[in-house]
Write a structure and sequence with these properties.
By secondary structure, the protein is α/β, with parallel strands linked by helices. It contains 15 helices and 16 strands. The strands form 5 sheets. It has an 8-stranded parallel β-barrel with strand order 1-2-3-4-5-7-13-14, surrounded by 5 helices. The chain has a two-stranded parallel ribbon with strand order 6-8. A hairpin with a 5-residue loop joins β11 and β12. α7 runs parallel beside α9, α9 packs across α12 and α13 packs parallel to α14. The radius of gyration is 21 Å and the shape is globular. Bound molecules: 6-O-phosphono-beta-D-glucopyranose. 6-O-phosphono-beta-D-glucopyranose (BG6) binds next to loops. The site of 6-O-phosphono-beta-D-glucopyranose has 15 residues, from loops.
Length: about 475
């Protein structure tokens, strides 16, 4: 077989991704209010708080909160964006911190200092011809909205979020073309506090509360899509799913059915954002469970009329499931969702399975379902990098992971005809891990001198992958073998 030419489509958006809560820092600088993620410490209570199982709405002296300083993008954005430009980035995915703009969510006027900070960031990107791709909500909500309204379980959040979104859409309408409303909307079902500021109280029906929060976010997402298109018709709005196709453990129909249901859990939500209505299987399932979706007058029409322009996904690995409940007891780590161990796959140091072909499979199934362009806005390998005595970092394992995924992404585009707009690998500059709160779980092309306990200078240095990715972008993929 002749060697495939790995050149990507002209204008393909190569870049990297971050999120304010793990990257920005400056948690109390420039008039910013406290965010939900500022209350999630590193350590053993992290997951219990993120899942909404502990009600801890204040900062505790004895805890370390990695989001407070992140990796200091707040003060180092110029250096970081310069490094991205050196790699040839065409796009930089970042999120805005809502509480930097409306510290309690309820102010009549936005915080000008917060808006001016993001102006400086976008201007720096544009100076280097880097297109910003902005997530409006990546795991953070103002703490005051949790205290006053209980987070996204309350419909009041829609108005507050729409006000915030309209403010930033108007302000940055000529600087930012690509917007995502909510990061990984399906995370609400797993991490209700981290994703939506929802604490599960005694007596709550957790599923009911989660679907209320989901519905409010879906309605807010449609309203924001409408407003964005009115403000500037050139703006493109996307939804975002923590994706990764679920495989059946065997060809037993029970296993195939279980796998389909697992995938439907996520698809059911972005079906609303991209097709304009809750799918029949989800409505039926919720009805059976006695869960009520809190529809208000006009919601259905709004969802129908204001669907997204593109689909965005995070892809770290495929998943595996079975119809046999006994087998499900032995699960391995994955991106928050537990999965069975696939004997054909290797895993990262954190137990996340590695499945490059799974990306092609996921892209195909999603493109087939939605028929809209797909943006891969997260992918990558979390690894504990070693700094050599001379300061170099040889992360050949990361290069190998990324290389294999880029090849299957290219196959999906070239051989299967999937429309892929771009690719932003996760944590392009090392940042705090969302699930563990660790620094040593690194994804970047650029190393940041900071450890799990909060020691370090925040100095940046280039890893081997920095030079590799620069060549990939510079040749538009042609160097990939
Ligand atoms: C995604 C999130 O789920 O996975 C990111 O959108 C997160 O915020 C990323 O950082 C990787 O997960 P982790 O736990 O390794 O940081």
């Amino acid at each position: 077989m002749s060697e495939i030419n790995r050149i990507f489509p002209e204008g393909f958006l190569w870049g990297g991704a971050t999120a304010a809560n793990q990257y920005e820092g400056g948690y109390d600088a420039g008039g910013k209010g406290l965010s939900s993620v500022d209350l999630i410490p590193h350590g053993k209570e992290r997951m219990r708080i993120a899942t909404g199982n502990i009600d801890q709405l204040s900062i505790k002296d004895e805890c370390f909160y990695p989001s407070h300083l992140g990796v200091d993008f707040y003060n180092r954005y110029e250096e970081d964006i310069r490094l991205m430009a050196e790699m040839g980035f065409k796009v930089f995915r970042m999120s805005l911190n809502w509480a930097r703009i409306y510290p309690t969510g309820e102010e009549a006027e936005p915080n000008e200092e917060g808006l001016a900070f993001y102006d400086r960031v976008f201007d720096t990107c544009l100076k280097y011809d880097i297109e910003p791709l902005v997530t409006l909500c990546h795991f953070d909500v103002p703490v005051a909205t949790i205290e006053n309204f209980g987070g996204w379980r309350n419909r009041k959040m829609i108005d507050l979020f729409v006000k915030y979104s309209e403010t930033v859409l108007r302000r940055y309408k000529d600087k930012v073309k690509y917007w995502l409303t909510f990061n990984e909307i399906n995370m609400i079902l797993h991490l209700p506090f981290m994703a939506a500021g929802v604490v599960i109280k005694e007596g709550d029906n957790k599923l009911q509360v989660c679907y209320e929060a989901v519905h409010h976010e879906l309605v807010a997402s449609a309203m924001v899509t409408k407003i964005a298109h009115e403000i500037n018709p050139a703006i493109q709005v996307g939804c975002m799913l923590a994706a990764g196709r679920t495989y059946p453990n065997t060809c037993h129909p029970d296993d195939v059915w279980a796998a389909m249901q697992k995938d439907n859990e996520g698809y059911g939500l972005i079906d609303v954002q991209s097709r304009g209505a809750y799918p029949a299987f989800l409505l039926k399932e919720l009805e059976r469970e006695g869960i009520k979706i809190p529809f208000a007058d006009g919601d259905k029409e709004l969802l129908k009329e204001h669907t997204v322009d593109f689909i965005s996904i995070s892809y770290y690995a495929s998943r595996l499931t079975s119809g046999d409940k006994e087998l499900l007891k032995k699960q391995t780590d994955g991106n928050v969702f537990a999965t069975m161990k696939n004997p054909y796959l290797e895993a990262s140091q954190w137990g996340w399975q590695i499945d490059p072909l799974g990306l092609r499979i996921t892209l195909n199934s999603m493109y087939d379902r939605y028929q809209k362009p797909i943006f891969i806005v997260e992918n990558g390998l979390g690894a504990n990098d070693v700094v050599e005595e001379d300061g170099s970092i040889h992360d050949d394992y990361r290069i190998e992971y990324l290389r294999q995924h880029l090849l299957t992404m290219h196959d999906a585009i070239e051989l299967d005809g999937v429309e892929v707009m771009g690719y932003t690998s996760w944590g392009c500059i090392d940042l705090v891990s969302a699930s563990t709160g660790e620094m040593k779980k690194r994804y970047g092309y650029v190393y940041v001198d900071r450890d799990n306990e909060g020691n370090g200078t925040f100095n940046r240095s280039k890893k081997d992958s920095f030079f590799w990715y620069k060549e990939v972008i510079g040749t538009n993929g042609a160097c990939l073998k």
